[in-house]
Amino acid sequence: MIHFSPLSWPRCRVPGAGLDEARYHAAMEDAPTGLHMVRARARSLAAINRLVARSKAHWNWPEGYLDKALVLQKVTRAYLRHNHCCEVLDGRGKLVAFLSVVVSDARPVLDNLWVTPERIGRGIGRWACTQIFQWALERGWTELRVVPDPPAEGFYLRVGFSDTGERVPSRIPGGPLFSIYRIQLVP
Ligand SMILES: CC(C)(COP(=O)(O)OP(=O)(O)OC[C@H]1O[C@@H](n2cnc3c(N)ncnc32)[C@H](O)[C@@H]1OP(=O)(O)O)[C@@H](O)C(=O)NCCC(=O)NCCS
Asked: Second label for 150, Cα 20 to 30 Å away, from 60, 105, 174, 180?
């Protein structure tokens, strides 16, 4: 059984993120208030899938791509059961983001990170990443990978990931070529 305790404020330093001690504290002061994470609940599945669909639709995609991609992206009960999935709730308990980590070939991968479109660009993504970095470190993982949607690559660079140079084609014909990013986590 996966233990998913609420995450405490991080104490990690992330090389490449530019988060030295001073900037780290500045970032925390700017962090959105009232956010908290809970393990994703089966009863939230419909809301989670609506959020993912709306968030992914934030970008412009080639004709026909989005609908096919969302089929592959659908979060199921089994997915919630077998992976580390979190709802990010605001101070009023409203779902504002969803994220998940899967373990693939013994390596943790940030498989989902979606912020509700109304709250994009307000620090929720950074806050969620900082939480998940700390959570990963507490489980003894010192690196995390992500395969970003291309329009989100700049965000991952901002929070400390870097491009491995590895590429993976979309499973959907005509879809984008994805880059694999990674971050080294230091306790
Ligand atoms: C990508 C996403 C998760 C980022 O979360 P967010 O809450 O909007 O990002 P934040 O406000 O925490 O931004 C943190 C930093 O990244 C930068 N940033 C955010 N999104 C960016 C983007 N798409 N490209 C470049 N930089 C970006 C911000 O300007 C900010 O920079 P700063 O440190 O100089 O202030 C969110 O925008 C989102 O869900 N987008 C739509 C769906 C998506 O692409 N999800 C990711 C799939 S892999």
From this structure: 105
CB 136 within 8 A of CB 108: yes
Q: Which residues, judged by CB distance below 6 Å to any ligand atom, belong to the binding site of ligand 1?
A: 55-56, 58, 113-115, 120-126, 148-149, 151-152, 154-155, 158
Around Cβ 80, how many Cβ atoms within 10 Å?
18
Q: How far is the CA of 109 from the centre of ligand 1 (A)?
A: 18
pLDDT tens for each residue of 145-171: 999 999 999 999 999 999 999 999 999
Does domain 21-184 fall under CATH 3.40.1410.10? My reply is no
Rounded to whole angstroms, how far apart are CA atoms 126 and 111?
Answer: 16
End-to-end, the C-alpha distance of the chain in Å comes to 25
Count Cα atoms within 13 angstroms, Cβ side, for 121.
3
Domain spans of the chain? 21-184
